[in-house]
Amino acid sequence: MVRDWLFLLLRYAVSRAICDRQAVLEQAATMDTLDRHKDRGAFRFFRSHSETVCAAIAAPDTPGRRQILLAHVRRIGEPRLEQMFMLACHLDVREKTYPGFGRISSRAELWQGLQRRR
């Protein structure tokens, strides 16, 4: 189901059609209500994440759009699907960053804190 949801998000990123967005939100609602032992309104991860990602896809000038989309890309976990999603959202594939896997800044701070030799 998660893979289907990811493909629906990719489809919406390509088409930007209202019916594709609705399909994403319906799939997310279904996934959030799979655990019948819990309160139906308690778990909203897929719905809220889908709404956020769809809004970022639909409005290219939204502040924080790039960060929202890259956060979604980091959750995908399949390189080809990640690449296709980034291309559909007009993001540079080479700029994908993974916080926690090394520095993403320049090498200017590489020698900081070491004493200079005389």
Could you characterize the architecture of this molecule?
The protein has one domain (2-94). The protein has helices at 2-15, 18-32, 45-58, 65-76, 79-88. The protein has 5 helices and no strands. Mean pLDDT is 82; it is low at 99-106. It is mainly α and 118 residues long. It is 55% helix and 0% strand.
Please sum up the structure shown.
This protein is an all-alpha fold and 118 residues long. It is built from five helices and no strands. It has one domain (2-94).
Protein traits:
extended, mainly alpha, 5 helices, 0% strand, single chain
Q: Low-confidence parts, pLDDT < 50 over ≥5 residues? A: 99-106
Largest sheet: none
- Overall average pLDDT: 82
What is the count of DSSP helices, taking H or I runs of 4+ residues?
A: 5
DSSP E strands, number: 0
Query: How does the overall form come out from the CA principal axes?
Result: extended
Distance between the termini: 63 Å
Helix content class: 55-70%
Whole-angstrom Rg: 19 Å
Content-based structural category: mainly alpha
Give the SSE map.
Layout: H1 2-15, H2 18-32, H3 45-58, H4 65-76, H5 79-88
Helix pairs in contact: 1-2, 1-5, 2-3, 3-4, 4-5
